[in-house]
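Re: duplicated header lines in exported structure tokens

Our pipeline writes sequence and tokens for each protein into one text file. With two proteins the header for the second block appears twice in some exports. Here is an export where it did not happen, for reference. First protein block:
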Amino acid sequence: MSIPKTMKAAILVEQHKPLVVDEVELPSSLDVGQVLVKVHYSGICGSQIGEIDGAKGEDKFLPHLLGHEASGSVVATGPGVKHVKEGDTVVMHWRKGLGIEGAPPQYRWRGQKLNAGWIATFNEYAIVAENRLTSIPTDSNLQVAALFGCAVTTGFGVIENNAKVRIGESVVVFGAGGVGLNIVQAAALVGAYPVIAVDVFDNRLALAKEMGATHCINAKTQDAQKAIEAIVGNQGLDVFIDNTGQPTIMELGYQITKAQGRVTLVGVPRKGNNIGIFSLPLHFGKVLSGSHGGESVPHEDIPRYQNLFNAGRIKLNELLTEVLPLDDINTAIDHMRSGQASGRCLIRMD
């Protein structure tokens, strides 16, 4: 199949404004390491909301495309590509996997250059670097497959690779969105106890309970610190994982973990929102670290997690709160902001 001349895409034109859904021109050929993918379902991650809101400051690449987790089918491959082939069903992910890191594609919109990185998924088609794709069985659930691009691999990777949770350790997961719910699920899977989910929306806490949380705390109606301390008792808290990016919550986690406890920061604070800590405990065993996508290795981790899903060992269909067409992407984003969406919102391209 030849490359389509145009496709529909959601474009970030201006920060703090809704995305613009419009027709975009594709380049006429594929470069080395590039793959043309027909996108089926794309997830919406908190990272994209951060980009829209300017969490990291001024965006110097506007206008540009967004999205970093999706399922799709390979339509064509460029020179040098060997790890995926035409007809493959793939997970699209932002962490690097096997293959070439081809150059970002040269899209155009309304006569001007439209920026995109090595992956963008809020679009009907995508020209993606080979190393942002992992092949999966053709009979895979395409909605669930989209979650393997970020939500699942990040959530499970935080427990496996960052926090390194051991059987019987106590874990607090502060922020029970798409990634947080998978952190809860992974903590339960490795035998953590208690697994405490904290959020400000009861619907998300109810889903966290379904994912394996042993205790749920609504930080809007309860004193989260007192509630956590009452649950873990004198033994103290082993692991605190923050998904909110709020400095006060990061500081809370550092304060309430035990002397040799671990604090893992998944959420990204807005630029200039710094934290203040007394660093002495770091010299005596306390650990404060960040997470970069759970340090996941897509081509190794996705097959492992998919086997767990196929065996009924993990829940992923339950995380799919809403599936909307691309034209309604701003509605989906609003539902995530407001907490109306308890799990992951998917955008349907077909």
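Second protein block, exported in the same file:
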Amino acid sequence: MTVAIEMGHTAAGAAATLDLEELLATRLLVQGNSGSGKSHLLRRLLEQSAPWVQQTIVDPEGDFVSLAESFGHLVIDAEEHTERGLQVAGERARIHRVSTVLNLEGLDAENQMRRAAAFLNGLFEVGRDHWYPMLVVVDEAQLFAPAVAGEVSDEARKLSLGAMTNLMCRGRKRGLAGIIATQRLAKLAKNVAAEASNFLMGRTFLDIDMARAADLLGMERRQADAFRDLERGQFIALGPALSRRSLALRIGPTNTQPRNATPRLVPLPEASTEAHAIVMAAPPPDPQRPPRQQRRPSPDLLGQLMAAKSAALESRAEVAEQPVSAEQLAERQERVDRVLRAVMAEPDAGFRPIGVLYQEFVVRCRIDGLGSDVPDLAGFRHMLTRARAGLGSDIADDDAWQDVSVRASMLPEEMQGVFMMIARAAKEGWPCPGDAAIARAYGSHSLRRARRLLSYIEEQGLIVCQLDGAGRRIVTLVELAWATAPGDPNADEPSACAAAPV
């Protein structure tokens, strides 16, 4: 079934339509200077397609929240949620097929990028069973996929750019159709813009943007000046979902209105002395900061503070000088392992970023009274690798595992846990872990990625994989002569090694 959405009319008066099914497969890029009508175009597209397909809008200015009243979109105020909460919200919205508006109004640029990235990653990472068709509209896309680094941190830029790249480059197979709108093509990352096959180009004045727009539409450079003459709401369209040849069209009216309407001229009130007095009046006191006291502490109080500080430093030095017994070290390690088991017992712990896991680990350690004995991030990575392999402290420190640890260090850090899990299964004679268990240990939902991971480890000369007559997999560790028992690669339940306690 072909669903044709009427976007407006052409210069000849004919209806200008957009093939919705073709759009889902080929994506859309909208470009135009401020005031050219980009938001109006997106609103028209969303209103016309709302009965046919699930939608989500990444809205940096809160322009599209009015869609909720007429079309039932769920408005998510990003300022009220954490990044983790937004990622889960994205997953649930995709699973339950709820159209949403991610309202980023009120946040600074860096927090907008972080929260938008978390929400888009939630849409992207759901299981295959929930890959329903979905329009993902990103207004002011140059904010989330900038061509060059700006004032935000590199970490925020990488998170946001990675999420936008996933949406435009890999989203099609997951049912995600990216629709991005930008004021300037020169400010938008080329890897993101290049994945769109449909284009709607509006009024543009800068030469560099006009040249890029003309190249995308297959126009000659001398024809690029036509973009300066476009009126508000006029666009030139090209693409398999729009037109096979460049086509000028005017966007039709919308049923809903943005909260931030175009400013209108309003006569100024008559000048008065009262207004002048109000403007120049003294500012009110800051309610969050008490009035500053000019009184200085007395010499006696300063002496007490210095004495208390000296006593605290001496007590810390005495505690540091006390030797720690082997029993105390063993007790501390047991408490750290217990905290790690609690973190790994969370249902989604295997698929959360290591930074998030470490933050939760540190908080739990402090609650448990470990204080300054919390391992650093590098130590936590080593512990997490060991835990995902199903190894406890006593097993991992055994002499028999020294060679395994050396061989694991030849692999990237995120793969070492998988190798050690297979090594333990081989040493104990357990069945070979299935693809689901390997993917879980790697921190992924993808079974295909698990199979590629085994192939990579085999290419490094560390293991040999083979199938028996029943199609069960056997993995042998090179030079160690350890081999797993035959195991079903497609087994849903966790293997014995994956289920073993940490």
